[in-house]
Amino acid sequence: MNILLVYPGCLEARLHEEDAGVVPIGLYYIGALLKENGYRAEVLNGHGPDGSPDRIRQTLTAFQPDVIGFSIFNANRWGGIEMARMAKDLNPDVKTVFGGVAATFLWDHFLTHFDAIDFTVMGEGEYAFLELVRCIERGDDVASVRGIGFRRGDDIVKTEPAMAIADLDQLPNPARYFTYQHLALTRGCPGKCTFCGSPRFWGPKVRFHSADYFVDQMEMLRDRGVRFFYVSDDTFTLRKDLVMEICQKILERGLNITWAAISRADCVDGEILDRIRRAGCVQISYGVESGSEKMRRFLNKRLSADRIRTAFDLTAQYGIMARAYFIYGCPGETPETIGETIALIREIRPLSAIFYILDVFPGTALYDEFQKRFHVSDDIWLSKIEDILWFEYDPDLDRETILAFGKRLRTAFYESLPGFAASVELKDAPELAPLHADFLSRLAMTFTHGDYAQNDAIPDKEKTGEILCRRALAYHPDHRAFWGLGMLMQQRRQSDAAVRILEQGLVHYPDSEDLNLCMAVSLMNLGRFEQALTYLLRFRDSRQMAYYIIQCYRALGDAENEAAFARRFQGM
Where is the B12-binding domain (predicted)? Predict the structure, then answer.
């Protein structure tokens, strides 16, 4: 049988594509389990070009799936519905299965209202989906499969819940079959935040992969060219002993990778931050939610302001970018509570922040409260909406006020950001000096060439980048810092200064194509074309260098070499 596993596109463009545009790791687990049981299984990411109707139709026609499994959360459910309808039009016999968080909590809604959906899988889906596929293949009664919903005549029924997988390592390693960047060590979260569906979806007990399973996965992916990973657990550092073991194995195997993780402010300390930094962690995201204790209580975010402050201070000390998540627009939100959040932001000095308006999703305690308070049924999801914003129903809140709150928060953060970056205090430990330099130069490039560079709300970006690069070089001769300073000098038309800093960099990194190119461009700007060629021709086979080599020969009047290089790279 041919099984197509799909992550459908969302209704709206995403502000943070890294959070929503990536295939969930669960689809890869399912795909690996299917492959190990003899099925032909492929994964399709419906975000981006492959999610266009024409491309989807081409994929369905070429692959000829017998079963299509959809990973559904609220924002992409309509993409899944439309694709299921398209698949049924092409092949009425294809079986369509909705799984994921939205299918778990809206299973009867989907089966009641959308004929193109044949089955739902609730909760953990690997073995439930495998058994369902086997039943479909044999033509057996699916009622024996635990953890699914389906139609029986005019009735919508569901079977007994599936048993949670006690030993996550019994699942085949998806990295044997697929290439991806998002990993998960755990399933579940001990927190009970009112806006989060994780506790109900995964159950009350947090389960863990072993360190070997997790690091084996990293190593397989590293060997296929993946160098940066997102560790997407709700609380990666929940078990300190396990994380320390993982980091030790990363270091022992010499994986030379970088990665970002998510944690809680009460689940980190200096020892664990030191170890994860040495093992390649460059960013940790923390759910702060609000500076108002009243708002945190409403969200059931059981964190004190002191714990939050300590976590952010420690994270920065070890050269890890601390990112903060904030939620605003809760019941009772006022200019004063927003002011408390801004005050906390200025205390904890996050180097990245994401601000969300309070959303309401099925499977959360907040959704239960929302339905009771405003007498809303699941039929609200028949509308083509991605989510429900609490303020849209709360008579004490209005759109203009909430949008003004968001603008006030973002403005305060962006205006303060250069000061946050410049005031980072790093731990005084000589063995961490190269990592501190790496951290500072990464942060510098974010201001000058990365996400912050195009943000007009942030002042003094170029100045901040230069300060950070020079601080980096005070710790260690960092490649990125030399490169960043060289480019900044070029932008200012200070080519002589660029040459001087790049000469220093090339002493340490003579084989760096980026530094050699930057040096060559600086020399070209000074009219020193012959000297520029000495740097460019070290990489005579590089397409990146070809344009500049040709320009140098043209400036020197060397038509023969100009033509030779033009022919060499023509059509590449």
Answer: 3-143
Q: Crossing angle, helix 543-555 and helix 559-569, to 10 degrees?
A: 160
In a domain, 527, yes or no: no
Q: Which two tokens stand for residue 35?
A: 């492959």
Q: Rounded mean pLDDT of 321-335? A: 97
* Cα separations in angstroms, 486 against 6, 447, 464, 492, 509: 45, 15, 15, 10, 14
Q: 32 and 129 share a domain?
A: yes
Rounded Cα distance between 404 and 457, Å, is 15
Q: What angle do CA 95, 99, 103 make, to 5 degrees?
A: 110
Q: Over the stretch 135-177, which tens digit does the pLDDT of each residue have?
A: 999 999 999 999 999 999 999 999 999 999 999 999 999 999 9
3-state secondary structure of 325: strand
Residue 455 lies in a domain: no
Measured between alpha carbons, how far is 287 from 234 in angstroms, rounded to an integer?
Answer: 10
Do residues 214 and 340 share a domain?
yes
Containing structural domain, residue 267? 170-389+415-422
Q: Which CATH number characterizes residue 284's domain?
A: 3.20.20.70
Give how far Cα 291 sits from Cα of 132, 302, 328, 404, Å: 47, 12, 10, 17
Burial class (CB in 10 A: 0-12, 13-18, 19+), 101: buried
Backbone dihedral angles phi then psi of residue 22, each to the nearest 5 degrees:
-110, 135
Q: Are residues 232 and 321 in the same domain?
A: yes
Whole-model pTM: value is: 0.94
pLDDT above 90 coverage of the chain, percent: 93
Please give the Cα distance from 24 to 80 (Å, whole number): 15
477, 505 Cβ separation under 8 angstroms:
yes
Match 């970006």 to its residue by tokens.
461
